[in-house]
């Protein structure tokens, strides 16, 4: 490990290390992927990987969690996006190729993708 | 607000109320037959005398400082006796009766001072009334604490 | 212990994990095999193909030690307790893969048994503000990067780049931080003193000796977040002008030492230690010095001597370390926690810190909560939090429903505080004012089963062993104190010994060289201050009520029984089928075996040692069977002394009066019992209902007493039919015992109480009881059938009234109680039976008004919530404004408490207390010569066996007074029965306590038939053999020969 010679060096290590700690701290945004048997069967794990990749690519801080069967099994994979202060939005039938648009419009532009919404809480 | 247009007038009235309270307890002590209960009433009369002396000190000394010191002490209203009924103390009054009687008297005094605080406009006089209200509430707290320990031991 | 070397995750730092699973690797969890859990987790995660998503992290201690091994799952924030490697596959499958919580691993809240899987819902953490512990359990302590990610070394960076040493000193002083090692000296000021000294080199020293037994705050910080301490020390070094530092860590903490060394090495690599830190030109280096196993080295001057290589002995101060410390150079010694908090103060500023807690003790305090507490572990709470909140809210209260007795704060050199102190805010000054100390933060909670004398002795043993020996007051004073205290625990103490203890303590306090000697008397002095009664009981009565002092406790059951009944002896005889002999032994201490076999709360069972293994022996039911067997053979109590001329009058034929009468008659006196009611028995006859105590056994028992020569005259009321003067002057009694009980029911004091339809509990039960016992005398049963009834109260009178009303055909029976279910004084079995019988309970409810015109139509009830602690340690109910409800009723039965009727006492010269009990001296004598008192009239409402115990004692006191004219503290002594053990204990190792058969519910309604049916002979004899015969073990302990078997099993 190279010596930290300045305050800026310290800050750089901190910023890098903070990425690793993100899961343990509050980020304000949680993306939940239904991972019951129905979800897994419908390909929810691939969808979740797509979400993780997209978040990493765009350097977005968000928690990704899994949850059991929500109930609407025919609509799996189901993806919830919840941001601090906003209603929780549930998207249905989310395939990996849909993830990029979801993240771009809902998280970055702040515009939920209406045609894929199945529930709002 | 008539009659309370000065700190002195307020303190004068408060002192008078303590004197009346002491007389009330002394009179009750004379009626009650139960010996330890009678002694307790006499103690309460003496306590009211102490309150009177304390107020006289305040009158002679620094009112603002007394108010500040009082504000720094926490005061809790247990509201334990608020719904209970107490009349005149009968000759066969027991400890439960006496505690309740005294607690309700303190409550009346507390409410009186609170009402006064809301009616005056001068800030200092208002603070003084609030301090007096807190004092009475502290007395009520002590009495209600004892009531709970004695009467509500198993309740 | 091997050094635990972990690999950091080998993924490049850009890779983002979806989930982190944290396994606690603190010593506590480690000793519960948390490392195996971690390995199992890593392997299962890999097996399920989740290694890219899920990261497994080894952290320091999060504090919830009693629940270890602890596992935290992020980002959800789920906390799993007591995780074993066998649980790992399920956790991975359910939580990591499918996102479901595994409920059985979640924290179970102790009273409601609700599962609380989320960390922030758990009350243990809810009230904590984690400053020094902010990283513990959250980061991997062996990763300097994770520390830096949490703003680690940012404070140092700020200090080195933009603050002068004076700026640092000012910030620390303004924060008001007081040393967390225990003395509570202002940290900023201490640093300033060291700065002012103009001698070099200077040293920064961290006291990580943590010698207090039961304390592990410092250890957890060193194991869980070592860099925080190092950063704090570096900042201190900058402020005072030091270039070298020492961490004096006790050698008994190998994991902490290992982590420190790793951390120091990592800091060196990053250039955060050593020369030219962060390019500022400031140099500072740290060494770890291992302690040598002496508690006294926690004292700063002894600590420094130890670093210098000398024997750890303190020296007088001045000079203080800030002037001349290590190697006579200016040194700053602070505790681990003080250093750990400093970086946060620098980063967030003094006003932030000062705003937490009270003005004179700002910030947070860290406590290691141990002892008899549900949530054992480490907590950090704001200063000023009431002691009771720490114990009951954060700590989760006392296990097994036992009562809180005391809390020891400040370790072996601190003091204990009783229940009355539970509202004390926890800060340096308030704790000292209350009689204890803050100390380093150890908090040991004890319950009713702890003997305070033994507890003080435990700390004294520790302190005397750790005395360095340099000064006489500590070296000799400590030993003498210990000797004296040991004498008391062995029943050989005298009242003078208490004076000796006070004298030695005062001298040690004033003249010992260091605070070890000065504070050694702390625990025994605070024990004497708050629990003097226990010390006196050990001395005068040779009794250890808590049941701990081995010399004084032959068996916990005998000890727990207020009358000292010899349970192991009669259990052994019952096992052999020798019921008459067993009964005789029982009656030597308690003549009411038939009654108590049915109604006693069985304090003996609550303390039974077998109960610590599986279930206590069913002593009461064995007793019942034994007594029932002999009911056909009337008992004539034996004479103990020859006949005497003196006459004694006993007023009141309850258990206290009858027992006293019996014992006096056995000693030859002529005794007459005068009873107000038409029937004898007191509360046994007119309080306890027929379905709990049928009249057959009750009257048989009373007849036994008459057979001893006691005359019982009923319908004789004191004050109406005779006066005190009549007894002495007219009838020639030489002594009078007042055993009139507590039959007067307290009024509710609410409006409407005078309406028709309000019938007090004791009056209700008396009317029903007299009729059921065949003494109706023209009385009629109260009309209850078809009515809606509410009983107000939570004691046995209330429950008896409720269950009686149900039997009499009440349409609805309600019980309204002001506190919660757990606080009810009534026996748990009674409450359960009431529930079974359909009684509706309303808790945290207080009636405020009786509704109706002339007659009752209902009651208005106000809901309560729980507020501050009272002097007994219970939370007070406070009315909730506006939250009221109505119950429609026809009959209200108030039963909130009972007092003694003292109306007849005017001009009798007998003093009563305000609470209407008799004021008595040590010999149970009242203020009038020759008049004694016993039973509920002295103690307030209690149980049959407690009244019997008083009856025994007052008889001895009266006997002594009649013989000598003097009052003496009585001791009721009976020969010790040593019954041989005839069966093999091991054969009963797996035997289970039998369930007691009860009358079917459908049969109970409408009758007063006895509910409890008792055991059959075989069950009873087998149950008696589950007894561990602790009394024989006591013989062994006292080196007395065991009794030899004489007869074969009957």
Structure description:
The complex is a heterotrimer of chains A (121), B (155) and C (1050). Chain A is α+β, with helices and mostly antiparallel strands and 121 residues long. Chain A has four helices and five strands. In chain A, strands 2-1-3-4-5 form a five-stranded mixed sheet, with helices on one face. Chain A is elongated. Chain A starts with 6 loop residues before the first helix and ends with a strand. Chain B has 155 residues and is mostly helical. Helices cover 74% and strands 0% of the residues of chain B. Chain B contains five helices and no strands. In chain B, helix 4 runs antiparallel to helix 5. Chain B is globular, with a radius of gyration of 16 Å. The model of chain B has no long low-confidence stretch (mean pLDDT 87). Chain C has 1050 residues and is α/β, with parallel strands linked by helices. Helix content of chain C is 37%, strand content 14%. Chain C is built from 40 helices and 29 strands. Chain C has a five-stranded mixed sheet with strand order 12-11-15-13-14, with helices on both faces. In chain C, helix 6 crosses helix 13, helix 9 crosses helix 10 and helix 29 packs across helix 37. The longest helix of chain C has 21 residues, at 944-964. Chain C is globular and about 105 Å long.
Order of helices and strands of chain B: HHHHH
CATH class of chain B: Mainly Alpha
Tally of individual helices of chain A: 4
| Distance N to C terminus of chain B | 45 Å
**Judging from the principal axes of the Cα atoms, what is the shape of chain B?**
globular
Number of strands of chain A: 5
Predict the CATH topology of chain A: Glutaredoxin
Topology at a glance:
The complex is a heterotrimer of chains A (121), B (155) and C (1050).
Chain A lengths: L6 H15 L7 E6 L2 H5 L2 H15 L4 E5 L11 E5 L5 E3 L7 H10 L8 E4 L1
Parallel strand pairs in A: 1-2
Antiparallel strand pairs in A: 1-3, 3-4, 4-5
Chain B lengths: L6 H25 L3 H26 L2 H10 L22 H25 L3 H29 L4
Helix pairs in contact in B: 1-2, 3-5, 4-5
Chain C lengths: L18 E6 L2 H5 L2 H14 L6 E6 L11 E4 L3 E3 L7 H10 L9 E2 L6 E2 L6 H4 L17 H6 L4 H9 L2 H11 L11 H10 L6 E6 L8 H8 L1 H15 L3 E6 L4 H17 L14 E6 L9 H8 L23 E5 H13 L1 H5 L9 E8 L5 E6 L4 H8 L9 E6 L5 E4 L9 H7 L7 E6 L4 H14 L6 H18 L5 H17 L3 H5 L2 H19 L15 H5 L6 H9 L3 H11 L3 H7 L3 H5 L2 H4 L5 H11 L17 E5 L3 H12 L3 E5 L8 H4 L8 H13 L3 E3 L10 H7 L4 E4 L5 E2 L15 H12 L15 E5 L3 H12 L4 E5 L11 H9 L3 E3 L2 E7 L6 E12 L5 E14 L2 E4 L3 E2 L31 E3 L2 H4 L4 H21 L36 H4 L12 H8 L5 H8 L13
Parallel strand pairs in C: 1-2, 7-8, 7-10, 8-9, 11-15, 16-17, 16-19, 17-18, 19-29, 21-22, 21-27, 22-23
Antiparallel strand pairs in C: 1-3, 3-4, 5-6, 11-12, 13-14, 13-15, 20-28, 24-25, 25-26
Helix pairs in contact in C: 6-10, 6-13, 7-8, 7-10, 9-10, 9-11, 10-13, 17-18, 17-21, 18-19, 19-21, 23-24, 23-28, 23-39, 24-28, 25-28, 28-39, 29-37, 33-34, 34-35
């Amino acid at each position: 490990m190279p010596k930290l010679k300045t305050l800026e060096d310290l800050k750089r290590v901190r910023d890098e290390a903070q990425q690793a700690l993100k899961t343990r701290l509050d980020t304000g945004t949680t993306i939940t992927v239904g991972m019951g048997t129905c979800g897994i069967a419908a390909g929810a794990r691939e969808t979740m990987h797509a979400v993780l990749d997209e978040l990493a690519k765009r350097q977005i801080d968000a928690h990704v969690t899994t949850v059991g069967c929500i109930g609407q099994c025919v609509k799996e994979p189901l993806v919830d996006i919840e941001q601090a202060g906003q209603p929780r939005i549930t998207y249905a039938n989310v395939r990996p190729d849909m993830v990029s648009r979801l993240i771009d419009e809902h998280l970055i532009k702040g515009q939920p993708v209406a045609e894929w919404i199945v529930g709002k809480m | 607000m008539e009659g309370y247009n000065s700190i002195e007038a307020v303190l004068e009235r408060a002192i008078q109320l303590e004197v009346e309270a002491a007389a009330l307890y002394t009179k009750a002590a004379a009626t009650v037959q139960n010996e330890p209960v009678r002694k307790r009433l006499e103690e309460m009369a003496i306590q009211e005398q102490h309150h009177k002396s304390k107020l006289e000190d305040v009158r002679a000394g620094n009112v603002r400082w007394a108010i500040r010191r009082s504000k720094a002490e926490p005061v809790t209203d247990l509201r334990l006796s608020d719904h209970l009924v107490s009349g005149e103390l009968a000759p066969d009054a027991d400890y439960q009766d006496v505690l309740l009687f005294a607690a309700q008297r303190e409550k009346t005094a507390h409410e009186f001072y609170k009402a006064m605080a809301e009616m005056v406009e001068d800030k200092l006089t208002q603070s003084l009334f609030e301090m007096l209200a807190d004092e009475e509430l502290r007395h009520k707290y002590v009495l209600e604490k004892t009531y709970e320990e004695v009467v509500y031991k198993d309740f | 212990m091997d050094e635990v070397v972990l690999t950091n995750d080998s993924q490049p730092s850009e890779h983002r994990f979806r989930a982190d699973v944290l396994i606690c690797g603190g010593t506590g969890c480690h000793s519960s095999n948390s490392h195996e859990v971690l390995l199992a987790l890593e392997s299962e995660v890999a097996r399920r193909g989740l290694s890219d998503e899920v990261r497994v992290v080894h952290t320091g201690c999060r504090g919830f030690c009693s629940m270890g091994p602890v596992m935290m799952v992020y980002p959800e924030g789920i906390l799993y307790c007591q995780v074993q490697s066998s649980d790992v596959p399920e956790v991975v499958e359910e939580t990591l893969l499918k996102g479901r919580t595994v409920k059985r691993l979640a924290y179970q809240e102790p009273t409601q048994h609700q599962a609380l899987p989320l960390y922030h819902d758990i009350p243990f953490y809810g009230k904590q503000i984690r400053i020094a512990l902010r990283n513990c359990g959250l980061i991997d302590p062996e990763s300097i990067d994770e520390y830096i990610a949490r703003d680690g070394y940012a404070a140092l960076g700020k200090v080195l780049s933009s603050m002068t040493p004076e700026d640092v000193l000012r910030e620390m002083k303004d924060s008001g931080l007081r040393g967390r090692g225990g003395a509570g000296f202002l940290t900023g000021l201490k640093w300033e003193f060291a700065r002012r000294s103009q001698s070099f080199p200077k040293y920064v020293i961290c006291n990580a000796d943590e010698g207090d037994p039961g304390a592990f705050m410092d250890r957890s910080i060193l194991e869980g977040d070592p860099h925080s301490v190092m950063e704090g020390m570096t900042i201190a070094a900058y402020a005072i002008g030091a270039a070298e530092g020492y961490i004096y860590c006790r050698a008994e903490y190998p994991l902490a030492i290992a982590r420190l060394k790793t951390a120091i090495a990592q800091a060196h690599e990053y250039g955060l230690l050593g020369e030219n830190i962060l390019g500022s030109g400031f140099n500072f280096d740290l060494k770890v010095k291992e302690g040598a196993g002496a508690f006294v080295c926690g004292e700063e001057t002894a600590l420094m001597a130890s670093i210098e290589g000398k024997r750890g002995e303190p020296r007088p101060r001045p000079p203080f370390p800030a002037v001349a410390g290590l190697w006579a150079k200016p040194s700053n010694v602070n505790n681990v926690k003080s250093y750990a908090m400093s970086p946060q103060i620098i980063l967030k500023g003094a006003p932030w810190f000062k705003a937490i807690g009270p003005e004179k003790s700002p910030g947070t305090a860290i406590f290691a909560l141990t002892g008899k507490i549900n949530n054992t572990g480490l907590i950090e709470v704001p200063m000023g939090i009431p002691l009771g909140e720490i114990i009951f809210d954060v700590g989760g209260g006392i296990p097994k429903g036992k009562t809180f007795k005391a809390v020891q704060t400040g370790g072996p050199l601190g003091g204990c505080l009783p229940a009355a102190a539970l509202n004390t805010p926890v800060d340096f000054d308030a704790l000292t004012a209350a009689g204890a100390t803050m100390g380093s933060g150890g908090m040991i909670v004890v319950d009713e089963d702890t003997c305070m004398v033994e507890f003080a002795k435990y700390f004294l043993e520790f302190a005397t062993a750790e005395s360095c020996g340099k000064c006489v007051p500590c070296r000799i004073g400590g030993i003498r104190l210990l000797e004296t205290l040991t004498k008391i625990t062995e029943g050989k103490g005298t009242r003078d010994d208490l004076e000796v203890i006070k004298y030695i303590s005062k001298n040690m306090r004033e003249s010992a060289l260091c605070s070890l000697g000065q504070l050694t008397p702390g625990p025994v002095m605070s024990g004497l201050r708050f629990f003097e009664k226990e010390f006196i009981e050990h001395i005068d009565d040779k009794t250890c009520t808590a049941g701990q002092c081995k010399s004084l406790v032959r068996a916990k059951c005998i000890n727990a029984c207020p009358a000292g009944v010899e349970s192991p002896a009669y259990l052994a005889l019952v096992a052999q089928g020798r019921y008459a002999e067993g009964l005789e032994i029982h009656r030597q201490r308690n003549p009411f075996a038939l009654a108590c076999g049915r109604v006693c709360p069985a304090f003996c069972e609550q303390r039974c040692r077998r109960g610590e293994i599986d279930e206590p022996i069913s002593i009461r039911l064995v007793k019942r069977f034994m007594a029932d067997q002999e009911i056909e053979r009337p008992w004539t109590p034996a004479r103990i002394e020859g006949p005497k001329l003196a006459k004694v009058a006993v007023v009141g034929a309850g258990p206290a009066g009858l027992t006293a009468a019996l014992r006096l008659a056995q000693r030859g006196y002529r005794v007459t019992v005068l009873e107000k009611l038409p029937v004898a028995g007191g509360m046994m006859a007119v309080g306890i209902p027929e379905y709990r105590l049928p009249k057959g056994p009750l009257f048989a028992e009373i007849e036994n007493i008459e057979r001893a020569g006691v005359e019982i005259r009923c319908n004789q009321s004191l004050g109406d039919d005779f006066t005190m003067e009549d007894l002495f002057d007219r009838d020639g009694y030489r002594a009078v015992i007042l055993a009139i009980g507590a039959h007067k029911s307290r009024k509710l004091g609410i409006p409407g109480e005078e309406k028709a339809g309000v019938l007090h509990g004791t009056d209700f039960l008396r009317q029903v009881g007299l009729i059921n016992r065949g003494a109706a005398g023209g009385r009629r049963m109260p009309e209850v059938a078809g009515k809606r009834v509410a009983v107000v109260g939570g004691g046995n009178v209330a429950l008896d009234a409720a269950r009686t009303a149900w039997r009499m055909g009440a349409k609805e029976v309600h019980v309204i109680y002001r506190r919660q279910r757990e606080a009810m004084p009534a026996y748990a079995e009674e409450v359960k039976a009431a529930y079974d019988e359909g009684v509706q309970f309303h808790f945290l409810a207080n009636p405020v008004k009786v509704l109706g015109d002339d007659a009752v139509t209902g009651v208005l009830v106000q809901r309560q919530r729980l507020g501050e602690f009272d002097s007994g340690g219970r939370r007070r109910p406070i009315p909730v404004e506006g939250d009221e409800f109505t119950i429609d009723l026809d009959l209200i039965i108030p039963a909130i408490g009972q007092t003694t009727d003292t109306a007849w006492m005017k001009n009798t010269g007998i003093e009563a207390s305000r609470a209407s009990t008799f004021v008595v001296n040590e010999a149970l004598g009242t203020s009038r010569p020759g008049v004694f008192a016993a039973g509920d009239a002295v103690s307030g409402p209690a149980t049959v066996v407690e009244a019997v115990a008083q009856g025994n004692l007052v008889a001895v006191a009266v006997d002594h007074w009649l013989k000598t004219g003097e009052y003496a503290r009585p001791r009721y002594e009976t020969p010790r029965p040593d019954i041989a053990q005839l069966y093999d204990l091991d054969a009963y190792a797996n035997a289970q306590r039998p369930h007691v058969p009860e009358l079917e519910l459908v049969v109970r309604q409408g009758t007063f038939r006895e509910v409890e049916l008792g055991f059959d002979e075989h069950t009873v004899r087998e149950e008696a053999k589950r007894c561990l015969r602790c009394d024989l073990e006591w013989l062994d302990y006292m080196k007395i020969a065991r009794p030899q078997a004489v007869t074969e099993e009957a």
